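Margin note: ligand = magnesium ion.
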Amino acid sequence: MKSYPILILLPLMILSSGCNEQYKQLASEKKAQNIILLIGDGMGLAQASTAFYFQEEEPSFVRFPVIGLHRNPPSDALITDSAAGATAFSTGYKSYNAAIGVDKDSISRETILEIAARQGKSTGLIATSSITHATPASFFAHVTHRSLEEDIASQLAGSPVDFFAGGGLQFFTQREDGANYLDTLSAQGFVVNTQKLERPGHLSLNSKYGYLLAPEGMPKMQEGRGDFLPQATQLALDYLSQDKHGFFLMVEGSQIDWGGHDNDSEYVIQEVRDFDKAIGIALDFAEKDGNTLVIVTADHETGGMSLSAAKVRMQSDYRHIQPTFSTGGHSASLIPVYAFGPGAGKFMGIYQNNEIFGKMLRAFRLK
Ligand code: MG
Ligand code: ZN
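Resulting structure:
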């Protein structure tokens, strides 16, 4: 028998010497056919940690073999908003606060969703805000300011998005220009539902699907939103996974940020728990599929949230957590990135938020 070169044997020995599946996946440079990017808007480490203290179920976060941190200042400030944050992820460009899919000079830049579509993949966007809100908008629209939600809505039908679910109906139907963009969506091949997240009888790649289920943002969890986010995630995966060329899906837990702005810990806790369920759906799919990269991160932290000890007569009671906030706005903390699946290893370490774009492209083998 001939001896194998040591360079070939060594990695094989490492892989076969009792390492678990997660490390095997990390070591592999396998291409990701699909990417699911889940963004918890405003979800810093304290917000994510609420899943470890305020819910019965084991958090989905524990299933990630890779954690990194991103640095998130925009081009024109130290603290980012959601528009510049999402534009950094979607285009690879640091831009100014309020920028949607444009760089710091207001030049439109192709997004990861548009690139994936150009490569023949199917695409989806899900949010619990309006679908025209800064985070989802940054994946399909190109406008100079996030407040231009009617312009953003008018760009959706012509974009390569195949599936979307969220709120924002009023930006399509009650517009200053009097146009009805639901008609435009239908003309572009969308089956649009404005009533409920109903599974079509025949979920076919020959159709596109759009759900606009609230005038603006979806209701809070505390106001009965129910399982919209995990169910929409499952529905999108059932649809998109029919595409043999793969897919790109962005899922946003939009209202974690809103709870932070309100300094309302119960609002944050309920929204994180809901987002954690959607993460679980994505991971269940990726585990079975084996060709799907799942990335969870946030654009920034909101509220300067801290899981402080409860105060009793000026004393800290370490047996009880009473979350506190230090601001009604965003903060500058580095933000965790959690990754699973082929290409996950690229997300270790500390890097700029806009580098996440290139890491996704390389996982897709498009760069
Ligand atoms: Mg958002
Ligand atoms: Zn915010």
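The chain has one domain: 30-304+330-363.
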